[in-house]
Design brief:
This protein is mostly helical. Helices cover 68% and strands 0% of the residues. The protein contains seven helices and no strands. The longest helix is centred in the N-terminal third of the chain and has 24 residues. The protein is elongated and about 55 Å long. The termini are far apart.
Length: 172
């Protein structure tokens, strides 16, 4: 069995960037370090209860609960930032890339928070369906149904806001 302090340090080293990215999306870049600190404080206190192989999903679940707690306390709504990280392939595509990012951002903003959370938690952070379900506190089948419905709603909003045809970034 690994020393608890060493395990907590290793958890931080391996997962802090992903938790920071999640927190940035949920509460903004300014408050993300506070969320990360709270998550890893909980992890440090609970390191003996974290199952091997489930660390990432466990940390994302803690991060989600920390964020929800912050939302309840502050009663502030957080919008999804336009964080499409794809680099333009060339100068000719810059206008199309900007338009696509804007369209995706508008479509995501038009969705309910629950749909955004399902889409971004599973897809953006590259969690498996089982991990995403655990983060969201639902069963894997429930997560898959919610993901399917959220994708359909995203597709409908995305296509309705399209000034010209673009590829759907969440197409199955």
């Amino acid at each position: 069995m690994q020393d608890p302090e060493a395990r907590a340090t290793e958890l931080f080293r391996r997962h802090a960037d992903d938790i920071h990215a999640y927190a940035s999306w949920r509460v903004g870049r300014q408050d993300a370090p506070d969320v990360v600190g709270e998550v890893f404080l909980v992890a440090w206190r609970s390191v003996d209860r974290i199952r091997a192989g489930e660390e990432r999903a466990w940390l994302f679940g803690v991060a989600r609960r920390v964020v929800l707690s912050r939302h309840r306390k502050s009663a502030a709504s957080t919008a999804v930032e336009g964080r499409i990280a794809r680099e333009p392939a060339g100068a000719d595509q810059l206008d199309d890339d900007v338009a696509l990012r804007d369209q995706v951002h508008r479509a995501l903003a038009a969705l309910r928070e629950a749909d955004r959370e399902v889409l971004i938690t599973g897809i953006w952070f590259d969690l498996s369906p089982a991990e995403a379900a655990k983060v969201l506190g639902v069963s894997r089948p429930t997560y898959l149904v919610r993901l399917h419905r959220a994708r359909n709603r995203f597709r409908a909003v995305y296509e309705s806001t399209a000034p010209k045809p673009h590829r759907n970034p969440l197409a199955v």
